[in-house]
Amino acid sequence: MPPDLAEAMKAIHTSVAQAPPFHDSDDKVIALGNGVIMLDGASAFVPGPVPPGVYADALGTGLRRHLDNDPAADLTGVLADTIHDVAVHLDLRPGHSPSSTVTILRAHDGWTDILMLGDNLAVLPGLTITDPRLSRLDLEPSCLYRHRLAQGTGFDQTHRAFLHELQTQQAARRNRPGGYWIAEADPTATQHAIVHRIRADDVPRAVLATDGAYKPMRHLGITDWPTISSASAADLDGILKQCHAVGSRRGFSQLVSQIASLVFCWWTRPMNIRPGTLPRMTRRSLRAKCGARPHGGRRDRSACIARGRT
């Protein structure tokens, strides 16, 4: 790749949709000059020293500071240093602290680097990346509460008791061999992150999603990722809203998370896509999948927040 083209591809542009908005969410999406960070603070049904959103925000702020200072830094090392810094700052101890998934997508020197710790999702042309280690635990409380929700049972005390027990069992397996790995208070967890390096010209675009977005999307059959990867911020926001609306109409709204984030990243415009626009066929495809018109044309404030503007 010519040096001038590689240099130009370092700038990553993003369209972001979040529900609820950035400041009210445990999900955090942070744009960098040459990348994007996505975090999903784990909802806490077991009381912790600080709320998961506070932890995720501190982690994201630290990652941005490190990567702004050194855009080419080793991502695993940066994440380990940041986990240590946040643990010291918030006085956190391994096994008794909030946690967060982490996805970092970065373009540098003709390469696209991806780091994932926890069950976020990254969809690139020809490649889907996620971390299945938590779901593979297949713990009994998880099976029980999902079965109750599928039967139409609401979020009652029994449900909350199952979630409390589930998080207790997950904590016993967190950042341990045979369990799963996530950002918490132990920097060595980063040694188990999923890491990919791909030639930049093979990755013109990507979609990132937290589990609160991609799991209900899969449940509702909204999985046309090439179409979704052409969407504006307003259209991504419309997808999240339609997940809630369609779930309610079909009687399984309990399965649809109230906290979700979608990010579309692009380096070049190989399909002549302009920010804030969506091709006619894309809109038609989304309507066919979701049964309603996407929310096109309305500017999504969460996208402005993620870019550092209001």
UniProtKB/TrEMBL annotation:
It comes from the Bacteria. Residues 290-310 are annotated as: Disordered. This is PPM-type phosphatase domain-containing protein. It comes from Amycolatopsis thailandensis.
